[in-house]
Amino acid sequence: MANYKKNLVLLSCLLFVACSKSDFLDKKPNTNIVIPGTVADMIQLLDNQNIFRSNSASLGIMSGDEYYYASADVYNTLATKTEKNCYIWNQDIYNGEIAIPDWNLPYQSIYYCNAVLEQWDHLATEEKNSVPGQFVRGAALFFRGFSYYNLVSVFSSAYDESKKTTDLGVPLKESANINEVKQRATLGDTYNQVISDLTSSIGYFSGTFPVQHRNRPSKAAAYALLARVCLSMRNYAGAAKYADSSLSCYNKLIDYNTLDTTARYPLTIYNDELLLLNATAVYYGAVLTGSASLVSIDSNLINLFDDDDLRKPVFFRNETGTFIPKTVYAGSGSYPFTGLAVDEVYLVKAESDARTGRLNDAIAAMNTLLAKRYKAGTFTPITQQPPDQLLRSILLERRKELVWRGTRWTDLKRLNKEGANITLKRELDGKTFTLSPNDPKYVMPIPIDEIAISHIQQNIR
After folding, report:
1. Average pLDDT over residues 150-161
2. Could you tell me which of 168, 283, 322, 395 has the fewest CB atoms within 10 Å of its CB?
């Protein structure tokens, strides 16, 4: 983006707005940056967690219906206006704050991806064709696609095939020229870029799943992300296809009966279901989990779990009648896990199969997953049922399984497009706040500092 250099300076200067996870994020790229010239150096850059695995959207999580603040006193401890305004769906969520991580961090990742891709073009043919050289190009394409998807998920409306040429996506940067100003692409072109990057990346990954390197993308991860993207587009045939492809590469599930449900971290880092590590951008007060958590889990969500469902004690801790997030899915850290995992792929497959008439396949996928989630001997397999009833069951399990995983906001957007008519409501300090289905406030405003410099079109809220 044209304001990318300026925003990174602001990101480092305004730490009260967005606390950085490392000193690296406080340094801005510039035209004199030294781009890695060897394959080994490129891999080291692509392995940098702060750039490529800590840039998912927080704004949607903070605006979603999975949590609440127990009191106005707790709410008032939030560090930024953005956190407070997301919670009650204010029209102006930034209220003058700049250097918004949900915008800046994905574009930082895109910048480095483009720099790697440009440098890769200058490698010798032998280096390009080596296994590490192929991985470098695949990973750069993958992370660029993932970053664009993170952006479009919060800064654009839900995908509508009939409006893809008129609805706005985000500016598409395909070069490492940080001074280039690009206007917003259409929503259709933005999703086309995401899909193109991800499908192109697949051919550069080896056929072996990197069990010891789950921080790195792979064929299984690329197919899983494509399944997630197609689901958000309501392209259910495509979502089913890519989910099947991902599961054919890797499909291991954890039997929750083998976990210590009393442990602080029942799920371990690099657990068997992980396809790719990823976490949200920085907003400590709103998304911190565990003993220092400010958030409580919505009781309506907690009540969806029955006594034999092991996900309840694995995911949450009961603090004198109030449930708080117990762990992130990757087993450590405080930020919601927004990466890719096998359980999500099974749920995408089940929903997409149900929506496209493959009911038996949908039932089989759900039974495979749920048999690993209930106390041994208590799970009753799903049997034949009317299609609408089966779909409701799948969506219920999706909400329970993927809590605190960053998927709920896009689910709300697409399900309301499908006619789900979900209204969100919060109570705070004696006041009631609501968010109606398909409300323009489901689309986050472009940060004001971006608008001031590049003059791209603002979202209407």
Report:
1. 98
2. 322
Residues across the chain? 461
Q: How far apart are CA 120 and CA 354, in angstroms?
A: 42
61: tokens are 């999580």
- Of 288-302, 304-318, 360-374, give the lowest mean pLDDT range: 288-302
The answer to whether 381 touches 371, Cβ cutoff 8 Å, is yes
Q: How far is CA 172 from CA 72, 187, 192, 353, 451, in A?
A: 40, 11, 11, 32, 15
Q: How far apart are CA 192 and CA 369, in angstroms?
A: 31
Q: Which amino acid is at 303?
A: N
For 280, which DSSP code? B
Could you read off the pLDDT of 194-236 as tens digits, one per residue?
999 999 999 999 999 999 999 999 999 999 999 999 999 999 9
Provide the β-strand partners of residue 323.
Answer: 318
What would the DSSP string read from start to end of 290-340?
STT--EEE-HHHHTTS-TTBTHHHHHEEEETTEEEE---TTSSSSSPB-SE
Contacts 24+ apart (CB under 8 A), 166-174: 168/457, 168/459, 171/1, 171/454, 171/456, 172/148, 173/1, 173/107, 173/110, 173/111, 173/114, 174/114
Residue at token pair 């996928």: 365
**Statement: residue 345 has pLDDT above 60:** yes
Whether residue 446 contacts residue 458, with contact meaning beta carbons closer than 8 Å, is answered with yes
Are 156 and 169 in contact, with CB atoms under 8 Å apart?
A: yes
Mapped onto helix, strand or coil, the DSSP state of residue 160 is coil
Give CA angle at 20 (24, 42), nearest 5°.
30
* Structure-block tokens of residue 172: 């598409």
Secondary structure letter of residue 163 according to DSSP: G
Do 325 and 404 touch, CB atoms closer than 8 A? yes
Evaluate if residue 16 carries a pLDDT over 50.
Answer: no
